[in-house]
Amino acid sequence: MILPDHLHAIFTLPEEDADFSGRWRRIKGHFSNQLVVAGAATRRRASGALVLWQPRFWEHTIRDETDFEHHVDYIHFNPVKHGLVTRVRDWPRSSFHAYVRRGLLPDDWAGDAREAATGYGEP
């Protein structure tokens, strides 16, 4: 999930690989290079790092299927939580649309934030 000021991802590393920091460094580097190649306006910190990136990340190991589902719900609802859209389906850069295509979630999942609080995401 890509939002204007942060992103969320769930991925699986190979069993012998626990280098989350290295993965994020490569993801950020590739994304940053593509921004520069595309001619996007970018600002940099004194260190040379793009202002786009936080200097840290939050890592969580998914414990079970229920934990996975809760994290996917949180990620899908995040654009609504941040006031970017009123319905999950209105955010174009989300795996939510793949879930709908695969029949895993209905198109109107979580409703419309203008109508009622849904309980997804952080308070």
Strands, helices and their partners?
Elements: H1 20-37, H2 65-81, H3 96-101
Q: Could you please describe the fold and organization of this structure?
A:
The chain has three helices and no strands. By secondary structure, the protein is mainly α. The protein is globular. The longest helix is centred in the N-terminal third of the chain and has 18 residues, at 20-37. It has helices at residues 20-37, 65-81, 96-101. The protein has two domains: 1-59, no CATH class; 61-123, Alpha-Beta Plaits, CATH 3.30.70. The chain starts with 19 loop residues before the first helix and ends in a 22-residue tail after the last helix.
Spell out the key features of this protein.
123 residues, mainly alpha, globular, Alpha-Beta Plaits
The domain count comes to 2
So what's the overall shape? globular
Which percent band covers the strand fraction?
A: under 5%
The CATH superfamily of the largest domain turns out to be Transposase IS200-like
Q: Report the helical percentage.
A: 25-40%
How many strands, what sense, and barrel or not for the largest sheet?
none
CATH topology (level 3) name of the largest domain: Alpha-Beta Plaits
The total count of strands amounts to 0
Total number of helical segments? Answer: 3
Subunit organisation of the chains = single chain
CATH class of the largest domain: Alpha Beta
Q: Which stretches of 5+ consecutive residues score pLDDT under 50?
A: none
**Amino- and carboxy-terminal Cα gap:** 20 Å
What is the structural class?
mainly alpha
